[in-house]
């Protein structure tokens, strides 16, 4: 865990820190070859510079966001925003289903929309894989 992510975790309440620590562990173990860093104030993992997954503190929960998650065909992930992102929210560490998260991470590698070049394409997304 890099220092910026560690600092992010340390700033959370005890329960939120438990959630963040568990998410970090599962993502880091199951998204090999990724780069993780604090991006727009929260931890995000990238593959070849394309944002894949991240989590952030919202009022009353920790949100796990998959940038291409709407294309995963997973009912537990709810659409977020006007592009292809989908989320799930946690209020307790025991809500995290590691098998679901591993499956979503596998899909996140196989199903990607090109957020890396969204500005260059003037807000238009193209499917990468």
Automatic annotation (TrEMBL):
Organism: Echinicola soli
Name of the protein this chain belongs to: DUF1801 domain-containing protein
Entry-linked Gene3D superfamilies: 3.90.1150.200
Cross-referenced InterPro entries: YdhG-like
Domain YdhG-like span(s) in chain numbering: 18-107
């Amino acid at each position: 865990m890099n220092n910026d992510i560690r600092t992010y975790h340390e700033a959370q309440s005890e329960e939120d820190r438990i959630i963040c620590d568990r998410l970090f562990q599962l993502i880091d173990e199951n998204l090999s070859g990724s780069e993780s860093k604090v991006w727009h104030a929260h931890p995000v993992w990238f593959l070849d510079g394309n944002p894949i997954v991240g989590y952030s503190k919202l009022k009353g929960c920790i949100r796990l966001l998959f940038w291409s998650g709407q294309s995963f065909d997973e009912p537990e992930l709810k659409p977020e925003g006007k592009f292809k992102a989908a989320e799930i929210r946690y209020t307790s560490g025991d809500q995290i289903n590691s098998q679901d998260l591993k499956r979503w991470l596998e899909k996140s590698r196989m199903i990607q929309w090109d957020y890396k070049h969204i500005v260059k394409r003037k807000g238009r997304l193209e499917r990468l894989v």
